[in-house]
Amino acid sequence: MMDWGGGWYGMIFGPPIMILVLAVVIALAVLLVRWLGGPWPGGQPQQHQPRERTPLDILKERYARGEIDKEEFEERRRVLGD
Predict the structure, then answer these.
(1) 38: pLDDT strictly greater than 80
(2) Which of 11, 20, 22, 73 has the most CB atoms less than 10 A away?
(3) Can you tell me whether residue 46 is helix, strand or coil?
(4) Alpha carbon separation from 54 to 35, 61, 72 (Å, rounded)
């Protein structure tokens, strides 16, 4: 007859395997919900693209820094057509 005395293996390996199986099931459920739910509304911050500076913007900045005076600013603005 066979020896049935090896039942202690289930007591040693059963709980860790059960925890592992439960963790895999939970991970799969979370991945499935995220995949079916689409992107999170607040997940990814929007990348701020700096707008391209126009020649008039550059001229205004130079005037604000004091690099050019009012007369030169007005003359160059007229040349730019604004």
Answers:
(1) no
(2) 73
(3) coil
(4) 43, 11, 18
